[in-house]
């Protein structure tokens, strides 16, 4: 069980305590700017990590807080990527509105899917989300005239940010743009999980039957969370399109859905920072392991995942929180 359990203290006090910023959180976001100052050769990798972290954060909202298991979350990532890319191909490459287009399109599809998702759980839910992912991927592959099919979407061009900052080859503008968007989405997510809505989601995850008994609208809450998560995933996909100026079917692949789930488990499900931390660890480890052994690097990723699950069942962030709690009690 994650630290996002039902509170032992009064709800108002629990939410106020959770919403209070800690020094560790401030240090985390300051550390996120370090690639620009100390490792500019890795700015593009840092940007990809942040985008993937946002994608993982969107999955954490429904899995870690509402308990909705999804193996098809890449559908919304890909929809956002394609919506932004098609808009750019048709002549609209403004970055900020491109994000809104990608997020809105994914959110609309997510709204339709939420009426199905909110009615199922367990294995049936896993199969439904997986099937949704496959349907969207096949539709994109078939619509060659619109999406480019297996060849990918061509002709994507992103305008200068705010009409002034050019997306340069070194990734400087892209890095700061991505960091700003991810941080804004994080603030939104943080506010939600430390609100009565977030508390209701945790209650649904822990005991949905009891929540119904006290009058909670479980399905309505799950639908809201699912739509917000789809919107955020769409924004992440649009960010990828704008900063790489390309879209491929890989954005809709099952592999992407599986990878983001692995990242979330590594970082910690229901830990708020788990998605970003898990994405950073997974992508850096993949980069290093593939250099050491290009053919069998998945073996080492699997070994890392097993080690985390066995020794840190709440993920790396959960383990660090537990260690911080021990150290705090020992220092008293």
What does this structure look like?
It is a single chain. With 332 residues, the chain is mostly helical. It has one domain (11-253). The chain contains 15 helices and no strands. It has helices at 11-19, 23-31, 34-38, 43-63, 74-89, 95-117, 122-142, 144-147, 172-193, 196-213, 218-244, 254-267, 274-292, 297-311, 315-330. The chain is globular and about 55 Å long. 43% of the residues are buried. The model is unreliable at 1-7 (pLDDT under 50).
Specify Rg, calculated over alpha carbons.
Answer: 20 Å
The backbone outline, from C-alpha atoms, is globular
What fraction strand? under 5%
| Coarse structural class | mainly alpha
Figure out the total of helices: 15
What letter string, H or E per element, gives the SSE order? HHHHHHHHHHHHHHH
Work out the number of β strands. 0
The tally of domains stands at: 1
Mean of the pLDDT scores? 86
Give the N-terminus to C-terminus distance in angstroms: 26 Å
Low-confidence stretches: 1-7
**Main beta sheet strand tally, sense and closure:** none
* Helicity range: over 70%
